[in-house]
Amino acid sequence: MEIKQISPLEHNFTEVLKRLVLIPKTLYYYGKIPVLRRKTVAIVGARRNTQYGHEIAYKAAYEAARAGAVVVSGLAYGVDSIAHRAALDAGGVTIGVLGTPIDQIYPAAHKKLAQEIVEKGGAIVSEYGQKDLAAGGKEMRARFLARNRIIAGLSDAVLVAEAADHSGTLNTAMHALDCGVELLAVPGDITRLTSVGCNRLIKQGAIPYTEPDDLLDLLFPERIVKRHSKKLLNKLLLKTEIEVERAIFREIFDGAQDGDEILKKLRLSASEFAQVVTMLEIKGLVVSLGMNKWMVRG
Predict the structure, then answer these.
(1) Domain-wise residue ranges, the chain
(2) How far apart are CA 70 and CA 34, in angstroms?
(3) CATH class of the 223-296 domain in this structure
(4) Does the pTM exceed 0.85?
(5) Does the first or last residue of the chain, that is N or C, have fewer Cβ atoms within 10 Å of its Cβ?
(6) Predicted confidence (pLDDT) per residue in 49-88, tens digit
(7) Residue 265 to residue 39: CA distance in whole angstroms
């Protein structure tokens, strides 16, 4: 793998790291970092995850990647690797951030996962270059905690799928809060040790995550408008069962205003269109703007 390096603040995707207190001077990577900024979510959690955490993390990462978001995590055992795998399965892009030198995958068991991430359009990233010696003991723990700030800093939202009390995952959550990144946490059984951290985050103000829409609506708020519009359309269509009325109303609902254009598209005569649109007006579905212009009644 060809190892490259960039100054984070000079790259469209990574310049968001400027909000960190300690900005990495250099990022080393191999693979592909998105050229332009895209919606990005970090999905992190317990290394010794439960089946509950596995299912939640996988579904969240899969749906986020399928929607076009970049999924970031730490390539560790447990939730991290589950998130990377789900993003790959969805055909999406995922980025693994290391706490070790760029040429030293940790854990070594995830070398194949790292290779697949790169082969499928993602990247492996570290602030430590090849010349940095592998750390051990307290120094290694410090590096992994430092790595967490990059995971949070790259993201538009951080989802904590599972976390025990005093978990390193909570360190990522704190970095998210420090740099103004939206924080979500999965509520869990109050007797489950791996849910203690998440439940505490929710008590402290994190957004409860109960379904993929909680995350997707945060990343892509236009989804809310579209969903509400569809509900409104269906509600209004209940006021008529006549197909030609429904067809004209759908055109106006989708933004068409010019009556002449609508009747041509639907292949209606001028008299037929006038008769139908008048009935829509009487039913309170549309309102005339004059000059054969129409809009949905608000």
Answers:
(1) 4-220, 223-296
(2) 9
(3) mainly alpha
(4) no
(5) C
(6) 999 999 999 999 999 999 999 999 999 999 999 999 999 9
(7) 37
